[in-house]
Specification:
Oligomer: single chain
Strand content: 5-15%
Number of strands: 11
Number of domains: 1
CATH architecture: Alpha-Beta Barrel
CATH superfamily: Glycoside hydrolase, family 3, N-terminal domain
Strand order of the largest sheet: 5-4-3-2-1-11-10-8-6
Radius of gyration: 20 Å
């Protein structure tokens, strides 16, 4: 049964779903599932992984702001983030990305967060200034959503972009009826799985039809009004409420290629922000055993303030505090670490190499992450 149809039965299943999810919450380090153990791994992925150096593996885990093809290929970074100001001239962008791929030993995942509405990275292109928001698309027929997403994906693919950091699976309103930041910004498809999953599924199918991978966000559900990139965001939702939000991510698991973690602190689950919590990232892993788990920007002010409250300024933030944040994200179980500060990405890579040399368990865990990254690249036609 398709995920969208399955979700129409959610009211009959919700107690069972809550029980399953809450059981998952009880274990901060869940065992690898049978699905993960039995995932089909292309032979080329294993061959490449075996031949890679520690430096190459560390670099694969970093998704960095796209400063230049030369910088990224020189350091071997696994992915780049395309920002709105880069998408003004598609021909120029395409040429730069082609050069990046040609000069990189391993194909580079090129990512963008193209949602539509307020988050429209294509707005500078002629004919693409006004694109519908998630709130608008939620009222469309499914076929229209899929056709629209296929059209957007075509533009991305022709430019050399293979990964979209969308769809958003967060609710417009939380369980207290309060509007969330995602709802305020018209980025939500609805309030619950019955509303969100069918629309998000149509969107993903459109992207996949043109060969663009998708990352759902922000696990386990953005349910506050604060902007978690800019300020500390704390959720007081109960475990049951969080589990209901996370059930949307379970419903989308058969379709999307991974998830992005939230930077919110969910007090009933952990004192750490979700992206730095082994318990919450481990929960996400049970839902997505062989898919990518990605951080949001580790240079975000809120995360830096959480690690170093007195020092999180653009000018004075110490490298040692950034590296503490990176190690927490690694130990939590994230596969890809995003950073919008290119020079700090070099620092991150060097630190990960040092840690791998000293910690056998971390080395093994990084191998699992790099394997998932290479599998995604294989699916995107990059290997």
């Amino acid at each position: 049964m398709e995920p969208a149809k399955k979700y129409r039965r959610l009211p009959k299943m919700i107690q069972k779903a809550h029980l399953l999810l809450l059981l998952a919450l009880l274990s901060p380090f869940p065992l690898q599932s049978a699905e993960a153990r039995n995932a089909t791994i292309p032979s080329g992925v294993e061959t490449l992984l075996t031949a890679m150096s520690d430096e190459e593996k560390a670099a694969q885990m970093i998704l960095v702001y796209f400063s230049s093809p030369e910088f990224v290929s020189r350091h071997g970074f696994g992915g780049v983030l395309i920002m709105q100001n880069m998408v003004r001239d598609l021909e120029k962008l395409s040429m730069r990305l082609q050069l990046l791929q040609q000069t990189s030993k391993i194909g580079v995942l090129v990512a963008i967060d193209q949602e539509g509405g307020r988050v429209n990275r294509l707005k500078y292109l002629q004919g693409w200034k006004q694109l519908p928001s998630a709130a608008t698309m939620s009222h469309w027929p499914m076929k229209r959503i899929e056709a629209h997403s296929r059209r957007v994906a075509g533009v991305l693919k022709r430019s050399g972009i293979q990964l979209n950091l969308a769809p958003v699976l967060d609710p417009a309103r939380n369980h207290r009826g309060e509007e969330t930041l995602i709802g305020m910004e018209q980025r939500a498809f609805g309030n619950n799985g019955r509303e969100i999953v069918p629309v998000a599924s149509a969107m993903v199918k459109g992207y996949h039809a043109n060969g663009v991978l998708t990352i759902a966000k922000h696990f386990p559900g953005y349910n506050v009004a604060n902007h978690s990139d800019h300020e500390t965001a704390i959720s007081n939702a109960t475990k049951e409420e969080i589990a209901e939000n996370a059930e949307v991510f379970r419903g989308m698991a058969p379709l999307v290629d991974g998830i992005m973690m939230s930077s919110i602190r969910y007090r009933q689950l952990d004192s750490n922000p979700a992206v730095l919590s082994p318990r919450i990232v481990g929960w996400a892993r049970t839902l997505y055993p062989d898919r990518l788990i990605i951080t949001d920007d580790l240079w975000g002010v809120a995360l830096r303030r959480w690690v170093a409250p007195q020092q999180a300024t653009e000018q004075g933030y110490p490298d040692r505090e950034l590296l503490r944040l990176v190690r927490l994200a690694l130990d939590a179980g994230n596969d890809i670490l995003m950073i919008t500060y290119p020079q700090k990405a070099v620092l991150m890579k060097q630190a990960i190499i040092r840690w791998m040399e000293k910690d056998t368990r971390l080395r093994d865990r990084i191998d699992r992450s790099v394997r998932r990254i290479l599998m995604a690249k294989s699916k995107a036609g990059l290997l």
